[in-house]
Write a structure and sequence with these properties.
Elements lengths: L6 E4 L11 H4 L9 H8 L8 E2 L13 E5 H4 L9 H10 L8 H18 L5 H7 E5 L1 E2 L2 E2 L5 E5 L21 E5 L31 H6 L1 H12 L7 H11 L29 H12 L41 H4 L6 H6 L3 H4 L11 H12 L17 H27 L3 H40 L7 E4 L6 H34 L9 H7 L6 H23 L6 H4 L7 H22 L16
Antiparallel strand pairs: 1-9, 2-8, 3-8, 4-7, 5-6
Length: 613
């Protein structure tokens, strides 16, 4: 489904930011600098409709088809659709994207690059569990939600010494929206955003590599130690990070090809052109807090696997005696490619020691070699028996074995053909499937039309247009369903904003109208208290007038004059022009009296009357 059209609403700005809900869930208003979009655009991540920068909204509301991510995650190798290895972390540990710290994202990027570029294998979950573990992130008895999960290297494992900075300034406030993209038949890669979701420790968080996995990973761990400790060719985490930044391939992206098939500038998985030296250094140095004197590695000391430096071939076990030297064959003299076994024997020592999970155990030459070994036929070229002399007894036995295997294969093929459905039957099945699909499409169209009509009716019901609000689609997708949902969602945002403002206003008025009562927690009950049968404003004005009259009596009494209050209270004998004249004479002294009284409003637990100090 395409992303929701971008929206704009013409309404007054919020006047009460203290009620913003992101404070409740632990989020802060996004503070993306002017430099951040330039950096993302330079990295090739600011593509059309791929990222949406937040405006001045006070709470996180990702559009349909979008998720919440952070700038520091993107510059450390994240891109959508995400790599299946990262997706596995979300489902195994039960966490969300925003709960991983930037250093944890960089750990996963380095691990994937290490496996694909220097170990020649896909990221292995058993190897990950042997090297890393996760823990909660907290400070001063405060458990974080944003960045609440930290990936750490196990203390008993000999791994690359990656010295990340202990603190990254302001990264939690640099959030934005990224479009969610799915791969294959999966519903989604990144879990739907829930800013208030709590981190629950699962049993999988404490999972360690089993003894079988440790044994299977011995070869990979040995290769990692060799990469770190080979004199003159030491590999480091800094070099690995600089490598994936230079080749412009995001390790955490669901790529078409693994990194050992990297094809240079024409590679389909590149997100941008090569970075300049200045841009690379500005991006790279904060990852490791490098000083100005420390140089960014221009290359790795170990040549990574790529299209120009392919994975080494695994040589089959040789059964030829060391004393017997193999004669040079006509194939080698002609300059043609050598057999797999010989090519592996003449490869460099560095390539020969590398762990290779993609050996030639399933190749055709290996099949003939294994068959020849079973028959007792020994030759390092591993060619089919038909190419050799049938005079020897071993050659004759090998030929018989191959003929027997060929006969078994033919019988299996004939049996498969006999059990296969006829062409006509397959056509009938296809016709029924097409008819069922057509009915399903018709049903889906009718269902979508009903949904559209209902959403439009709800939208008109929700906002009848009495508040002069105008809603516009900046880039409509010409999809009635998506456009109707977009307008309804915008109206819902405005309604939520008005509800928060209304709650704040009623909360401030409540202690003045109901001084001896407790404010209701439910908004509906709070509003209902302001809707009694009597006029609350009239009662409030009468109370204030009573206070003013009593204060006037107190001031007159303090002046020492003798006043007959019964006669003064008989207002029926006061003529209107005389009353105005008396009020006019009193205005000259009212300011001094008010300054003396110094009225102040009562608090929530006090009374509604005007008090004096």
């Amino acid at each position: 489904m395409p992303p929701r059209a971008k929206l704009t609403k013409h309404t007054s700005p919020r006047t009460n930011p203290s009620m913003e809900p992101q404070e409740i869930s632990g989020w802060e208003r996004s503070r993306i600098s002017n430099q951040d979009p330039k950096t993302l655009r330079t990295l090739g991540l600011m593509k059309e409709d791929n990222l949406i920068l937040p405006g001045d909204e006070s709470f996180l509301t990702p559009c349909i088809g979008y998720r919440v991510t952070l700038v520091d995650h993107l510059i450390r190798g994240l891109s959508t659709p995400i790599h299946e290895f990262l997706r596995g972390h979300f489902f195994v540990y039960g966490i969300q994207l925003h709960q991983l710290t930037p250093n944890s994202i960089l750990h996963i990027s380095i691990f994937i690059t290490l496996c694909e570029c220097f170990l020649g294998t896909h990221p292995h979950w058993g190897l990950w569990k042997r090297i890393f573990f996760i823990r909660r992130n907290s400070s001063r008895n405060v458990a974080y939600n944003v960045g609440g999960i930290v990936i750490c290297v196990r203390p008993d494992v000999d791994y690359f010494d990656v010295k990340f900075p202990d603190s990254i300034q302001g990264w939690r406030r640099r959030w934005l929206y990224i479009r969610e993209e799915s791969v294959g038949s999966q519903e989604y890669n990144i879990a739907p955003f829930d800013g208030a979701a709590k981190i629950v420790r699962r049993r999988s968080c404490d999972a360690e590599a089993s003894e079988e996995e440790k044994t299977a990973m011995d070869a990979l761990m040995k290769r990692i130690r060799e990469l770190q400790n080979t004199r003159g060719k030491e590999l480091s985490g800094v070099q690995i990070t600089a490598h994936f930044l230079r080749i412009r391939v995001q390790p955490l992206h669901a790529r078409k090809n693994p990194l050992w098939m990297y094809a240079g500038e024409e590679d389909v998985d590149r997100v941008s052109e090569d970075l300049s030296v200045k841009d690379l250094e500005r991006l790279f140095r904060p990852f490791y807090s490098l000083s100005k004197n420390s140089e960014v590695p221009a290359s790795c000391r170990v040549v990574p696997y790529s299209g120009s430096h392919s994975l080494p071939e695994r040589s089959p076990p040789s059964t030829v005696s060391p004393k017997n030297k193999r004669k040079r064959s006509e194939t080698e003299d002609s300059g043609a490619s050598k057999p797999a076994g010989l090519a592996a024997e003449e490869s460099s020592p560095e390539d020969g020691d590398a762990f290779d999970p993609y050996g030639d155990a399933g190749s055709v030459s290996s099949f003939f070699a294994s068959s020849s070994a079973e028959c007792g036929y020994v030759d390092s070229t591993a060619q089919p028996p038909s190419a050799f002399s049938k005079k020897t007894k071993a050659g004759q036995e090998c030929t018989k074995a191959l003929e027997a295997k060929l006969k078994i294969s033919e019988e299996a093929r004939e049996k498969a053909q006999a059990g296969a459905a006829s062409v006509e039957e397959l056509r009938q099945r296809l016709s029924k499937a097409e008819s069922a699909l057509s009915d399903k499409i018709t049903e889906q169209i009718a269902r979508e039309k009903g949904i559209i009509d209902r959403i439009e009716a709800q939208s008109r019901h929700f906002f009848p247009g009495r508040n002069d609000e105008r809603f516009e689609l900046l880039a409509p997708k010409d999809d009635r369903l998506l456009d109707a949902l977009s307008i309804l969602e915008l109206q819902g945002d405005l309604a939520r904003t008005n509800l928060f403002d209304s709650r704040a206003a009623f909360s401030r008025l409540f202690p003045h109208f109901f001084p001896k009562e407790t404010e209701p927690e439910i908004f509906f009950a709070l509003v209902k208290r302001f809707l009694p049968k009597e006029d609350l404003g009239l009662a409030y004005r009468r109370e204030n007038l009573k206070i003013g009259v009593e204060g006037t009596i107190a001031l007159v009494t303090n002046s020492g004059q003798e006043v007959d209050w019964a006669k003064a209270g008989n207002t029926g004998k006061i003529k209107k022009h005389k009353w105005k004249a008396l009020v006019k004479d009193a205005k000259a002294h009212s300011r001094n009296i008010i300054d003396f009284v110094k009225p102040k409003p009562a608090g929530s637990t006090g009374i509604a009357k005007m008090e004096v100090k």
